[in-house]
Protein 1
Amino acid sequence: MFNFLQRIVDFFRPAPYPKDNFIEPAQIIRSKAAVIVYDPIIDAKGAPLSQLMNWRNVPDLLAEFTSDILEISGGQVRYEIAERIDAREFPAKTDGFRDTPQTYLDVWNRVAPQHTPSGVDYYAILRQHNLLTRIARGEIDEVWTFGFPYAGFYESIMGGPGAFWCNAPPLLNTEASKRRFIIMGFSYERGVGEMLEAYGHRAESIMERAFSQTVGEANLWKRFSRYEIAAPGKAACGNIHFAPNSRADYDWGNKAFVQSECYDWRLNFPNFKGDVRAVNADEWGGGDIRAHHKWWFNHMPRVAGRLNGVHNNWWQYIANPNNVIV
């Protein structure tokens, strides 16, 4: 009788917190982004800066970028553009200064120096658009800004309680959001490849923090990001600037072959089989920035389970920094 009752109690007892190698289903990660486009009016006819300069079309950039993220995450990360705000103004710098059409064109044409301090006032943007409250309410999860050269945005920056370095110092005193959030800094002067690069630096910062409590070979992020000149004979997938065989930053077109375990990461993680192959730039697009970055992201783990307390699906951290234990 006792054993029968004990089995009933055990059946209804809550499951324990997942331990190493605990198998959990891969999750669809849905995230709502507010998009703020800084495209100031630049002439008396009402033409915006992007039109005057013949720069990229933001809706096209958004469509291609979100499609790329969906693809390289294996369909797991699904961004929704919750709102687009067209700001026909120059954003304020940290000292309150705002460019005018003339001061900006003088800088662009190199007849005047850039204003210093050059950084944008993030707190003014948060206040103007009530972003901390909207994040706290769950209306949005992150913010994507589109600017122009010299606008003053970081590629990414994190705010909220427990915010940490995300390719920029954390935004302090933003705990009213009640959770961490990221502000991406994109540019419509550039392409989707550069957007993926900004997102890649975000991923590097987040994964560095996710594995900050693990050392040696247990630190899989360190192992994943190895490249030949930094770790001779141990190349894996490299980082957003260095492919496995790169000799310098942005050397994505290098034709020299190196031995790399990148296929082991793509095909066998977490049960590595020692699959080491000779690879060169032909694997990742022959020097194309967008092709390389998609190749790199495509090799990131996105399977169920945990190792040493860290998810085997790294996208759960990259797309939602609140999952990182700090």
Protein 2
Amino acid sequence: MMALNRRTLLRGMAASVALPYLEAMSPARTSAAEAPKRFIALFQPNGVYPPAWDVRGSGASYEFSPILEPLRVHRGDIQIISNLGTNAKGHVAATSAVLTGTPLQVTANDPAFVPRMGISIDQLLAQKLGQSTRIASLELGTEPPRAGGENNLPISFASTVSWSGPSTKVDPEISPRAVFDRLFGAKDARQAALENKSLLDRILEDSKRLSRKVSAADKRKLDEYLTSVRDVEKRVERTLAPAPETGWKPLSKITMEPPPEGIPSKRDVHLRLMMDLLLLALQTDTTRVVTLMMAHGFSRQNFSFLEGVKGDHHSISHHKESPELTLPYTIVSRWYISQYAYLIERMKQIDEGGTSLLDRSIVLYACELRDGNGHTTRNLPIVLAGRAGGLKPGRHVALEANTPLANLHLTIAQRMGLELDKFNTSTGVLSDLA
């Protein structure tokens, strides 16, 4: 059997396709300890309805709540963590604190309006892990920045959780086409689509050559992988020349115009496509650090495609304990968690030489608020999945009240291999997670 380097590419006209882990790559890996670790963060806006989120019991014998029920099948792969918080005020400051632990601040009467805070944990990890990959980190989203302000802070700052420095935000890419092109070097994607030339058509000869030289198991895995790449490419192509929006209606007062070309009009379609692109990036070791804003931190996305839901998410979150709003609010949160469950399931299915992609990852799910009704930022909704760095999932970990969220960031940094004693506002590590 031939030996392959982990960085082997299939090449063709204006395209290059990185490979997933194959048996033929084993000789190049000297020990399991050197296997790559990944960090993924999913952000959900507008908080949750606490009575529908909170689980009963702690340790391994907890009971799932209505919102978290979609994760039941992954019980052994997750940790539900209670009592982490930031004490931030409002959506914008709270969103900025999700991966920094430090609420966004500006100096009073600053004419340049320069934000000041700490680096986010994903960008810190990217500085170390990104040295080994083609893309240091991937920041994905589904909504463009919004205009307006909150508590003297621009709402546009709530479009990201990634900060490369105290005053430098990293905006997420919301175009599936742009992400696909970046991953596969498909610079002529539009022209190729018009000429009916797929990415796989352009690397066909190289893929055939490789298939003849690897084992039957690797050939099967390669075929499955290339099929999934083509599936994503087809879905991206549909955004290049979308069907006319018959009877399109604005999703809310904020979104009065149809989405621009290249952005799917359907909420669920867009998010699933970004998740599948995320998976391809991880599977091919193109990057080891990814953040996904499932929606803007002040999102008014409409969820009327879900049965029992009317109106936009932000408005529903101000429920005032009315069952007419707490029920749809819960339905939306459960839908978001089901997307997280999808990602976990797919990561468990990706083999990395006797273990799964999930086992070598830390996958964080976080909200900026506990409850959108009161904008509370203590005891935030937090879930971790994966076993990278010795994490031991399968439990509900109830920490001491008001534990700084930055303590989780510091713990993740250490588990990912960083030699760090403090991270922004941290006061210690969370030894209960491993």
